[in-house]
Amino acid sequence: MSFSVADVRKDFPIFERTIRDGKRLVYLDSGATSQKPWVVINAESAFYSKHNAAVHRGAHQLAEEATDAYEGARAIVAEFLGAKDNEIIFTKNATESLNLVAYAMGNAEAGNRFALSASDSIVVTEMEHHANLIPWQQLAKRTGAQLKWFKVNEDSRLDLSNIEQVITANTKIVAITHQSNVLGTIIPLEAIIKRAHDVGAVVVLDACQSVPHMSVNVTELDVDFLAFSGHKAVGPTGVGVLWGKSELLRELPPFLTGGSMVRAVTMESATWADAPQKFEAGVPNMAQAVGLGAALKYLSNIGMDAIAQHERSLTGYALEKLLKIPGLRLVGPQDNVARGAALSFTINDIHPHDVGQYVDSQGIAVRTGHHCAWPLAKVMNIPATTRASFYLYNDEHDVDALVEALLGAQKYFGKS
Amino acid sequence: MSFSVADVRKDFPIFERTIRDGKRLVYLDSGATSQKPWVVINAESAFYSKHNAAVHRGAHQLAEEATDAYEGARAIVAEFLGAKDNEIIFTKNATESLNLVAYAMGNAEAGNRFALSASDSIVVTEMEHHANLIPWQQLAKRTGAQLKWFKVNEDSRLDLSNIEQVITANTKIVAITHQSNVLGTIIPLEAIIKRAHDVGAVVVLDACQSVPHMSVNVTELDVDFLAFSGHKAVGPTGVGVLWGKSELLRELPPFLTGGSMVRAVTMESATWADAPQKFEAGVPNMAQAVGLGAALKYLSNIGMDAIAQHERSLTGYALEKLLKIPGLRLVGPQDNVARGAALSFTINDIHPHDVGQYVDSQGIAVRTGHHCAWPLAKVMNIPATTRASFYLYNDEHDVDALVEALLGAQKYFGKS
Amino acid sequence: MELDSLYQEVILDHYKHPQHKGLRSGYSAQVHHVNPSCGDEITLNLTVSDGFISSISWDGQGCSISQASVSILGDLLTGKTFSQAEVVVNSFSELMASKGTTSGDPEILEDAVAFAGVSKFPGRVKCALLGWMAFKDAAIQSQGESK
Amino acid sequence: MELDSLYQEVILDHYKHPQHKGLRSGYSAQVHHVNPSCGDEITLNLTVSDGFISSISWDGQGCSISQASVSILGDLLTGKTFSQAEVVVNSFSELMASKGTTSGDPEILEDAVAFAGVSKFPGRVKCALLGWMAFKDAAIQSQGESK
Ligand SMILES: Cc1ncc(COP(=O)(O)O)c(C=O)c1O
Ligand SMILES: Cc1ncc(COP(=O)(O)O)c(C=O)c1O
Q1: In this structure, which topology does domain C2-146 adopt according to CATH?
Q2: What is the pTM for the complete model shown?
Q3: Does position C141 have pLDDT exceeding 90, yes or no?
Q4: Ligand 2 within 6 A of A132 CB?
Q5: Distance (Å) from the C-alpha of residue C38 to the closest C-alpha of chain B?
Q6: Where are the domains of chain C?
């Protein structure tokens, strides 16, 4: 139940390079995108160089092999999530996955369970990433439905005290993040899911920051839709996943229309194939899906519990070290309880852009800004933060390097 | 102005493998998807192994390098099409590009030049691929606009005799293919574009089958939007392009919403960044865009005119050989005028699936079916055809192998 | 030659001389199925009397595999009860899902074991199943009505 | 150290002691600009009298680069005519687009040549330009009004 970070780092070619004139790469920006192991890079290359053809379409050997590879990847994703194969839809990223659900619901006609009207409401939270906020704002605008939200507490947790007022009999959709990409806060889902299901609403989970970092089983969780991005889970860019319960995917109208998603077509109208094909129009991102399969296999081989455990202990270490820096304000849960390995902070009044630039000069990659969660920044009254986020290839040396660089930044900008 | 096919084939690793027990691969399915040269595969791998980071977001060296690579790819695409950089939008495939335009227009509110009402019409043709038909059917359905279309002639050309009745003062959109993926017919665009612009309509060009095969310059053509897929142009899967005139992109509402496409966001609403960012929500398909850049550079180095010339002469050779086969009926223009290198046909009453299977057993990859243009198949009164499509890596040996295999199929199924 | 494991003699025979083709009237159920990936279509009429499948007839267009498959289906299932037919249908479906790992039970499938080779060609399994899926639907319809 | 080519002494000075900060009333034009990628904001007031820029004042939050840049802008452009200011603005924009290939014309840009190093950090160019874009907008507004 544990692994060697040194061995893991050997699997990732990017750690063979150096940064800013020979410095060791300390990559603390996995919350934005993760690095990729050779097995993933090679899986994509092998698809192109050996089996490339359009899936589901040709009656030739390459097309058969490509289809096997692509559908094999779907089976891997399904197993990883504890889902059925035909519940897995490949998208280009989590943003598309979430837009897919929102637009498809918007396409529902009267009588369809997803059809929304002015008397319905959609519930989100103040800590959503823009990708799980704006699509719902737009859906609300198009349908007249009301957008409501849970607020964030002083202690960076969701305020669920008014759950009965927020999720009501009129609520049709509860769209919620599993883990905040800014605060690191992990959301306790049980009460929210129970309340949503009690009133007949569906729960859409933005699992971008959870699926790569811990074991997530959709059947145990009992959510209704779940979205994540391959590129944050050591997978390729250009591939995301939408999972949905099969009985819901059956009723959900399609989103993108075109080839391979139809049953029959005339000049005037079309009917739809079954899921998942109904939601995968056009020639898919085949090599990327295959790469994502390789990525999830890689993660499974190491073990999601071992990865979660590793990140937890690294977060504990980082919290201890960071909170000792005078002038550092941690934005997010101060303890190592129900939180992931994303640590946002400010230092004195040094602008995060300047902090980021300084630590970059030391070979350390962090992220600065509002992290695509602008409303949260306003709630916290901080226009921007610096965020360090950890993954399986990080260790205590990386934390030490960060702490040293932050002290250096204080000196450089005259704050110590 | 010419190149060696033997040299080109060495650039594509897939030709090092064999098919069905040691047979030489004869790949005649580039109309569905093309093969990839090493330079493209390596460009993707190099991005992952050396420069991978989220673009536009981080203040660190990797993020800078990734942004340079991604924006550099955009500039390559722009130059390839004769467009401006900020007119190039990366999508996941042409299907998404076309859906983007259709959905975004559907998002236009009264007063916006793209807002459609029941008095407006949208014009397509009978030879559209589903990807350039169903999105418009759906847009028409959502807005009440009327869907109209040009018919296909006996000689597999568009019937433009009634152009004044099809494109009228009420027409807002003319969505048309540049080259039919089934018939090979190249559409004469000038009269259509002129008529469309005279009545104030925008022209959306499905250039999936033209951009990979000939020089296409959007400024010279004077269309308004253009879509193509990377994977058909020796590029990676998972990346497509939408080009649009900048003044139109300015007015077009966004489609996918989320991170990186906003100007400002509150819990209630959001405002949008300028194009192209406005249309690229979420972490983009960075490695794939970079791969597409490498692909278009590869094609440019060989020369689009040389490629078109090569395909033309190969098509001439193939037409001559195929039309000599007794029982073969070519579906599409019978001469080598204004046609591309996609040849669809039937043989006796052998079902295309059986033809495809037989030629596959000889190592030859062709495509069979309705080729995602079902209405066209009905017009031509042929449920399915066999299609051979050529590209820069095909030569006369490939044509000879096909002809021999077709004669073999006739024998096998008792038709000769 | 691998191709011959797909196109067994029996299959090509049924393709060239399809049985039960041409729709008969007086049916208990009629269904129309389409294979969207290739456009193949089939209409199948099913007549039931006294709990027995007394007639299966069909028309449509498709490849040798789909035509031969429904032709053999007609031979196999005519005269059977629904529960007897179900055994055959299930056995055939299993064979099609086997990816070439089994050769099929000749006691149950008789001539239809010729389709064992099809299961090695994933692109063709849908062709072989087209008529069988149509039959399944027709059986449900006609049983629904007789209740 | 490369970092020092970005954070020139002049820049850090202006950052620590920003000039023209604090909005003055009686302005000819007021604009508010935001850098959406980092959330930095600026409000800029511009006063024109007799065809000269008589006062520039601003408030906002942002990184050292954006704060120093608008601070220097105030120094440079106050007292100039719009056509004189335009020369400076264009020269600064060119410098920012130069990717480190030029060092800027000290005749025109004076202290602002300190930003030459910023052009080597593409992620920071927008920061340096924030105040300048705001000024451009304000200039258009106030000139529009005076017509
Ligand atoms: C003419 C035409 N349009 C659109 C498409 C759709 O392209 P894609 O499947 O890559 O989105 C294709 C190819 O499948 C095509 O040939
Ligand atoms: C919580 C959360 N949701 C959604 C997204 C959007 O993911 P992507 O940009 O891959 O679509 C991200 C990452 O950027 C995220 O952290």
Answers
A1: Sufe protein. Chain: A (3.90.1010)
A2: 0.96
A3: yes
A4: yes
A5: 5
A6: 2-146
